[in-house]
């Protein structure tokens, strides 16, 4: 019999407790030994709850008990989770966690400690909830170079975007619906601004590349600025809008980002809707693999945690954690990443083409404006072009305002023209 302890008795912790108790016979057969919950750690009391008889409030009771061989950390956050997990590994106990913050920031360090003590640090539930993705990357897709990982990694944002797409609702009202249904927190910032997704794509990127990807260095943009009008344009193009975490090889460099993207119907994640998560893994040999399922929720997440517990019991004295090193992976400057951009505009097509060259126009029947798609250009080039306001450019070209030297230089860079060529259009207007 293997003794385990659960740290935290919230949504996921109570789910882990329930699964181990209700599926006891099945889990015993899978693990090869019976798994018994000796302790549940929480600051609160739970009178009448099934955990009441094993509830403790002092972590040291668990840490100093040699019978406890596996610790299940489902508290979330960094403090005291990091200290608890590190001390458990150093004491020769394996750890299974769903804590994406912990894994994203300290994963490489904790993996190393686990290996040094012939124990395991496992975190299948940290990304994708009930979707099996960590173990496939670590153990099954090992003959391939991973060229790309693209994922819908946050159920809250996917729910909001799906509702806006299907019902034409605005962002604020849809967010409130998500909060009322319990899909979004009272403070939804971590979800809607992409902070949750960026930690998850950092974990996946670290697994794929074998080095530590710092989530704080990944370009991150949320969905709070997406409007109902944006979805009208998406529909006009036959596309959907998804918040995607992405890690991709580009010109022998690795580019990572979290941002809203327009997906065409032929994209494997186009139809991933509601609170469901979807992850595309592209290998240089196996091609495209797609993982779709519940990305959150009590029992799906708890199920992934318990699968790690079973794996830990199977390998009590053998470290199977071969994931990524502490060495940092240098990401390519995101400003150099090339892609097509969609832009909404009220300027004349003539002025737009002076700045962006050949573009593809999109009409969504919105008064006073239209959209266009640029050719494939870098983020830096787009920023330079977009920084030249269309109104300003039009006024300059039509000699309604003067042009200073700095503006001349920026315009020349943006439209790939010499100062002489631009000067010929605005002769006599340079200050």
Write up what this structure looks like.
There is one protein chain. Helices cover 39% and strands 21% of the residues. It contains 17 helices and 17 strands. The strands form four sheets. Strands 3-2-1-4-5-6 form a six-stranded parallel β-sheet, with helices on both faces. Strands 8-10-9-7-11-12 form a six-stranded mixed β-sheet. It has a three-stranded antiparallel β-sheet with strand order 14-16-15, with no helix packed on it. α1 packs across α12 (298-314), α5 packs parallel to α10 (195-209) and α14 packs across α16. The chain is elongated and about 80 Å long. It has 431 residues and is an alpha/beta fold. The protein folds into three domains: 2-130 and 299-314, 3-Layer(aba) Sandwich (Rossmann fold), CATH 3.40.50; 135-296, 2-Layer Sandwich (Dihydrodipicolinate Reductase, domain 2); 340-425, no CATH class.
Question: How do the helices and strands line up, and which of them pair or pack?
Answer:
Layout: E1 2-7, H1 11-22, H2 24-31, E2 35-41, E3 55-56, H3 59-63, E4 68-73, H4 81-90, E5 94-97, H5 100-116, E6 121-122, H6 134-140, E7 146-152, H7 155-167, H8 171-180, H9 189-192, H10 195-209, E8 219-220, H11 228-236, E9 240-250, E10 253-263, E11 276-283, E12 287-294, H12 298-314, E13 338-339, E14 342-345, H13 349-356, E15 360-362, E16 370-373, E17 377-378, H14 379-387, H15 390-397, H16 405-415, H17 419-425
Helix pairs in contact: 1-12, 2-12, 4-5, 5-10, 7-8, 14-16
């Amino acid at each position: 019999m293997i003794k385990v302890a659960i740290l935290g008795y919230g949504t996921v912790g109570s789910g882990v407790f329930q699964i181990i108790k209700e599926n006891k016979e099945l889990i015993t057969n899978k693990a090869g030994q019976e798994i018994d919950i000796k302790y549940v750690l929480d600051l609160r009391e739970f009178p009448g709850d099934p955990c009441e008889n094993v509830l403790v409030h002092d972590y040291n009771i668990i840490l100093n008990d040699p019978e406890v061989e596996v610790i299940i950390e489902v508290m979330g956050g960094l403090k005291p989770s990091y200290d608890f997990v590190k001390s458990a590994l150093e004491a020769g106990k394996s750890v299974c966690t769903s804590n994406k913050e912990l894994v994203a920031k300290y994963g490489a360090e904790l993996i190393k400690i686990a290996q040094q003590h012939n124990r395991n640090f496992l975190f299948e539930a940290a990304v994708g909830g009930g979707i099996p993705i960590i173990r496939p990357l670590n153990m099954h897709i090992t003959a391939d170079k991973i060229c790309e990982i693209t994922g819908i990694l946050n159920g809250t944002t996917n729910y909001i975007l799906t509702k806006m797409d299907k019902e034409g609702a605005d962002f604020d009202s849809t967010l409130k619906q998500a909060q009322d249904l319990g899909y979004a927190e009272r403070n939804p910032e971590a979800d809607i601004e992409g902070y949750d997704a960026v930690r998850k794509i950092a974990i996946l990127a670290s697994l794929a590349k074998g080095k530590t990807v710092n989530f704080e260095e990944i370009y991150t943009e949320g969905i709070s600025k997406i409007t109902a009008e944006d979805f009208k344009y998406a529909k006009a193009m036959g596309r959907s809008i998804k918040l995607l975490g992405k890690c991709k090889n580009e010109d022998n460099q690795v580019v990572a980002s979290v941002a809203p993207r327009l997906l065409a119907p032929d994209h494997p994640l186009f139809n991933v809707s509601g609170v469901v998560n979807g992850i595309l893994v592209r290998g240089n040999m196996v091609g495209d693999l797609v993982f779709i399922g519940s990305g959150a929720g009590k029992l799906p997440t708890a199920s992934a945690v318990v699968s790690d517990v079973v794996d830990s019991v199977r390998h009590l004295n053998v470290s199977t954690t071969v994931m990524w090193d502490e060495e940092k992976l240098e990401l390519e400057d995101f400003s150099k990443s090339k892609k097509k951009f969609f832009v909404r505009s009220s300027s004349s097509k003539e002025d737009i083409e002076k700045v962006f060259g050949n573009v593809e126009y999109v009409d969504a029947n919105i008064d006073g404006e239209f959209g266009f798609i640029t050719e494939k250009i870098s983020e830096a080039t787009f920023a330079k072009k977009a920084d030249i306001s269309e109104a300003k450019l039009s006024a300059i070209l039509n000699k309604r305002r003067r042009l200073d030297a700095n503006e001349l230089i920026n315009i020349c860079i943006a439209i790939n023209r010499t100062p002489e060529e631009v000067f010929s259009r605005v002769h006599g207007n340079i200050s």
